[in-house]
Every structure is written in C-alpha cells, then in structure tokens.
What does this fold into?
Amino acid sequence: MKEKWRNYYHIGLAAFFTIAMCITFFFIMFRFDEVRSGLKMVAGILRPFIYGAVIAYLLIPICKWFEQQFADAAELDKKPEQKAAKYRKVFSALSIFLSLFLFCLVIYALIAMVVPQLISSVLILVEALPGYVETVTSWIEKLVEDNPVMINYVEQYSEDMMQTAQHFAKNSLVPNINNIITGVSASLWTVVLALKDLIIGLIVAVYLMGSRTTFSRQAKQIVHAIFPEQKNLESDKEQRADWILRETYILNNYLGGFVKGKLLDSLIIGLICMVFTVIVEMPYAVLVSVVIGVTNIIPFFGPFIGAIPTSILILIVDPVKCVYFVIFILVLQQFDGNILGPKILGETTNLNSFWVLFAILLFGGLFGVPGMVLGVPIFAFVYQLIREWVHKRLKLSEKEHKMEEEKN
It folds into this structure.
C-alpha cells in the first residue's frame, strides 16, 4: 500500500512539474520583453558577483598551476597528511594572491600601453575631422562639376541639410542642453559605479577561488540529494546525478575552452595588426588595432564588424594605405581562421560553419553581443546533448529489433 501511494506521489509530482514548465515556457514566449527586463534588473543588482565569477573562472587554471608548482617544490607527497594540509592552505592563499596580482598587472600593462595611444589617436581624429570633411566636399565637387544636373541635386540637398541642422540646433539641441549635460554626468557616474563593481568583483573572486573546492563539493551533494541513487538500475544505464555532473563537466570544457581560447586568439590578432600598422605607418595604428582585436572576439562576424569602420577611417586619410589594409585584413583573417584559431581552440565546439552561424544569429538576436560570444559554446553543448540522445535512442531501437528477431 505504501509503495502504491509512493508511485502516485511520483506521478503527481511529474505531472505538476510538466504543467509548470509548460506554463513557464508560454509565459516566457509571450512576455519575453518583461522577462528580459527583469533579468537585466537582477543582473544589475548582482553585477559585482558576475564580475567576480568571471574573473575567478578565468583565473582558476592559473591558480591551480601555482598551487601545483608550490606543491612540487615543497614535495608535499612525502610529508604527513596533517602537515601537508597546512602547507596547502598557505600555498592556496599565495596562489590566489599571485593570480590576482598577475591579472591586475596584465590589465595595468594593457591600459598603460593602449589607452594613451588610443586617446592620442582620438584627439588627432577630432582635430583632423574638419579637414576630412573639406576633403570629402572637394572630392564631391570635382566629381559633379561637369554634371549640371548633379550639381543641382547636391545644392538642393545641401540646403535641405543646412535647414535640418539649423532646425535641430534651434528646436532640439539648445532646449535640451541641460539634459545633455545631465546625460554626460550620468555617464561619468556609470563609469564610477562600474569601477566600484569591479573592485567588489575582485573581492568576490578571492572568496570564490578560495572556496572553490567547498562549493564544488556542496554542488555535488545537492545534485545527489535531488537525484538519489536509483536501485534496480540496469548495468548499462547511468545514474541521473552522475549524468548531470558529467554533462556539467562537458559544458565547462566547452565554455571555458572557447572563451579563454578566443580571448588569447583575439589578443594575438590585435598584436599582429598593431605590428603591421606601425611598420607601414598606417594612420591611427593603435586605435585600428584595438578595434580589430576587440571585435575579433565575436566569432564569424567579428572581423567584418571591426574592419569596416577602420577601413573607412583609413580611407579618409590615405586611400592607397586603405587598400593595403583591406588586403592585410583578408590575409590576417585567413591566417586566423585556418591556422591560428584551430591551433588555439582545437576542436572545442565540434560545430560546422552552418551551426556556428545559426548560434551567433540566434543568441545575438536574443542577448546582443554577450550572446554572440557565448552562443557558440552553449549551442555546441545543446547540440551534443541532442546527438547523445539520438544515439541512445537508435541504440535502444536496434537492441529491441534484435530481441524481436531472436524471438521470431
């Protein structure tokens, strides 16, 4: 009787969760904007913890490497367990400190090298902008000077543009000057808040790196508590808890390998671009290299996103060097896509180009730039789950077919 009621309980619980998931799915589909705004609000509140989790996730391999080096140097394997445990605590603290110090040192070096040159390039661009406008205007005048019809169109549109600019300045710019000042102040305040969140994130990263083994053990205990061991399970079937932990490990490999490899790949591409632009004396070399390196983080579309505005910028200054730059970018992306990228990333995602493009468009449309960066490894994980399920179903179907043949 007790076993019968237990079966009813499990059936009712499964039905409840099925109905709840269907309701949740339809609510998300028809109220997606509200759900996304709610998630943004929660993400804004938890931003320091998100920063800390990302920093810790990137630094944990470095921290483990330091710990291993300290353990090998101290020969902990030959020491008593109690004494070795004390040494491990000290080495863990030192490894966390060295990892964060190395992280801050790299960030400072990048800022010290790039930001001054970047500011200088932007200031030069702003100062030269009127001359560029005059150059483009002269080029258009020479283009249309032998075409009276074209001259009339240019003059007409020039007058319309002047009237639109005057109307905008009179009716929109001047009355809203206070709002513009307020917006600039708000932007500066946003930068201050971002720095505050980053500092808190570093503190959170220390706690996460120091307690990573505890959190890992607690997560495994929770999974095993929710999905207890199933008795009378066939020998070729896997326990649910073990399956969840195994798939989580695979997701971590997909996500971590792709993100870390893509960051390293983009850094190398940015440095190669900087070396080339400096050697050939390309205008705004640092600014162009930073844009190319940062946008290269986005798979597939990143090179084009960065190359188009930088090519236009160089075209205004020197059209001949713009041609050289476009050829260089094409060669660089071929090198990245066929040699450097596969060498660093390897077979991280095991996705062909069609599914990579599909994942970027889908997740980019839903979550913007973060979705374009993280969409590929997440979709690769989902693809792997579906492929694994299909193989199991085919294997089961083949097994049942063999059993039927043996009966006959």
In short: Residues 47-142+182-225 form one domain.
